[in-house]
Amino acid sequence: MHAIILAGGFATRLWPLTSNTPKPLLPIAGKPIISHIIDKIPRELPIIVATSEIFKTDFEKWISENSDRDIELKIESTSSDSNKAGALASVAQTISDYKLSDTLVIGGDNLFEFNLSDFINDYEKGVPLVAVYDVGSVEEAKKYGTVVCEGKKIIAFEEKPQQPKTTLVSAACYMFPERHHGELSSFASKNRDNLGSIFPHYLSKSIKCKAHCFSGFWSDIGSFDSYLNAHIIMDSNDKCDYADKFSGLGNVFNGKNHIDADCAIKNSKINNCIIRSGTTIVDSDLSDCVIGERCYFLNANLREQMVQDETHLI
User: Fold this and answer.
1) Would the pLDDT of 183 be above 60?
2) Model confidence pLDDT, tens digit, residues 200-252
3) What is the distance between the alpha carbons of residues 100 and 261, in angstroms, rounded to a whole number?
4) Nearest to 23 by CA among 222, 206, 177, 169
5) pLDDT tens for residues 265-288?
6) H or E element, residue 20
7) 276 burial level (CB within 10 Å; 0-12, 13-18, 19+)
8) Helix 181-188 and helix 87-98: axis angle, to 10°?
9) Which CATH code, of 3.90.550.10, 1.10.287.130, 3.30.450.30, 3.40.50.970, is assigned to 2-233?
10) How far apart are alpha carbons 307 and 46 in whole angstroms?
């Protein structure tokens, strides 16, 4: 068994944060999203990270920092959102290129608390398996692929339905059995992008599919709100990182913040913010913001903003 992490998307909804950094390498609670994912994957499982050519150098650096894990990089010859391979096509091609058997597939922007070993143990040989989460709201369910179950058996799978029959949604964590790789490859040749779309196809072919229901925290990082929320929830500290470094400088910190150690902050109010390396903030008031690297703010007043690296506001 291998694990594939899909990390080739261009995350245009998170621009400008992702203009220079692939989304799976954005930090949450002090480390990249993808590092949270590999921490959940059993150590004996080899990992293949599928990404785009434009992100090759970024992921090579990340792999060098995780040399204790068996991680291989698969580079796809795509350089923009317009010519990307598509998630399902990427999985099918990776399975074919590496001649994989049963395969664990996880979205590279997927944060969760459940134990992946429990998910793998729930896998029934030859039966496709998907992790499902109860979002608790029909309105929220409209944003995702919904999964209708009888016990653990999936009886229906609908992609972003206008009238959901359930609040259970697919959480971009799958087990694809070797037995059905041919079916997956054939379907992916014409339906390249949406991973979950293979499940209605499986069901139409009378292929048994199962759901693994989990609880706790889960987030599909696709927007400013979800990114900031995930950071706040996953940061176990009640005060900002490195708070002692910035105390006594006229600062007020509220909520949960993550501030890289080499930042400089003086006479400022900071509430629920992520502030990345090399940034200087003076006489400013920031709330619910994500600030890129090497920024400089003087007398700035920002609410719910994502700020690109090397932005100067004076």
Assistant:
1) yes
2) 999 999 999 999 999 999 988 878 778 878 877 876 654 566 667 887 899 99
3) 42
4) 222
5) 999 999 988 898 899 999 999 998
6) none
7) buried
8) 130
9) 3.90.550.10
10) 36
